[in-house]
């Protein structure tokens, strides 16, 4: 009598091959261009970015988003200002609350410890 054996595939080898995952490359940080104010989700100009117009006023960051879809409000950790216009970032919407000024000749840095993840509006002016 002939015994029938089910064919067993070497599933362990197959499963192992499928589980090999290539580590995702860190996406290059957005390079802020001339006449742009760029805000970044993370320190040192990294993470997702959002370009702000230095000739516009932004009264409420709750309506703005980074390229990754995350809301801008209370989440900015570094700023680059590639414009000679001055800017002010406020803790609250409608240009109120604690303010930090980015004056003429200031081109960017990490947000201060006290204001990290707190900016909610921004105004600019010729200076
Ligand atoms: Ca805030």
UniProtKB/TrEMBL annotation:
SUPFAM superfamilies: gamma-Crystallin-like. Gene3D superfamilies: Crystallins. Keywords: Signal. Residues 1-28 form the signal peptide. It comes from the Bacteria. This is Peptidase inhibitor family I36. It comes from Streptomyces cadmiisoli.
